[in-house]
TrEMBL record, chains A, B:
Transmembrane segments: none
Source species of the chain: Alcanivorax hongdengensis A-11-3
PROSITE patterns the UniProt entry points to: HTH_ARSR_2
CDD domains named among the record's database cross-references: HTH_ARSR (cd00090)
One Pfam family, short name: HTH_5
Statement: the UniProt record of this protein carries the keyword DNA-binding: yes
Single GO term (MF): DNA-binding transcription factor activity
The protein's name in its UniProt record: ArsR family transcriptional regulator
NCBIfam families registered for this protein in UniProt: HTH_metalloreg
SUPFAM superfamilies in the record: Winged helix' DNA-binding domain
All residue ranges annotated as the HTH arsR-type domain in the record: 3-107
Length: 112, 112
DNA sequence: CAATCATATAAGCACCCACTTATATATAAG
DNA sequence: CTTATATATAAGTGGGTGCTTATATGATTG
């Protein structure tokens, strides 16, 4: 994990940003390529300020980035943004592995 | 992915459950082994009902399970509970192939 | 320049949520 | 049976959040 900040605040921002289904829907829409605010506004039944606010939340969480082209601002997914989330999940890897190993041992003993 | 529910409601419950830092802290505490409500109440500076409510939220999200022993109720992590979250991340494998592949291996072991 | 388009920010509001205290339920102990 | 312990549930409350409309900022166009 190179260049990993691992700050609880950033972790919190990510979890909070993804907690809202509208935000997850916007995030998912961006997987098909970058999109301007009005593109997303058209795709979802929501006001323009709401879209901008969701995007601001995602950007502060490091999940998306923006690029201005004329008067449009295109948003795209920031690939590294999910790293803290993946790191958080992997943090429980040892726990899961232990559980699985113990379960395997138990099953082996029952087979004998 | 065997026995995968993949319901948006469950997905939402998981994201919402993990959005709260207190709940994540409780979840993390359970990785060190099962614990009763009072154990967690002692570990964190929080009232007993607050702990019970957090645990209820985690249980409804499928992230923890409980077991009664006398008048104590022990909570433990439900290893399969994270599956929908991992599945959601896998959906973006085009962006994070390597890290997601490692998570996939973990998921496969959990399924066995 | 003025007008228009695209987005951001401000302000307000209704609802949600995490906490509290109070009470109910359930098991154990005397 | 009464009391104590452990947890859950109910009810209330302050702060946060997601939405709206209104306005500001910024870039293009005529």
């Amino acid at each position: 994990m190179i260049g990993m900040t691992r700050s609880p605040e950033q972790e919190n921002r990510i979890f909070q940003a993804l907690a809202d289904p509208s935000r997850r829907a916007i995030f998912e829409a961006l997987t098909q390529g970058e999109a301007a605010v009005n593109d997303l506004k058209a795709r979802f039944q929501i006001s323009q300020p709401a879209v901008s606010q969701h995007l601001a939340s995602l950007r502060e969480a490091g999940l998306v980035a923006s690029r201005r082209d004329g008067r449009r601002i295109y948003y795209r997914i920031e690939p590294q943004g999910m790293e803290p989330l993946i790191g958080w999940i992997e943090h429980y890897r040892a726990f899961w592995t232990e559980r699985v190993d113990r379960l395997e041992q138990l099953l082996n003993r029952m087979d004998q």
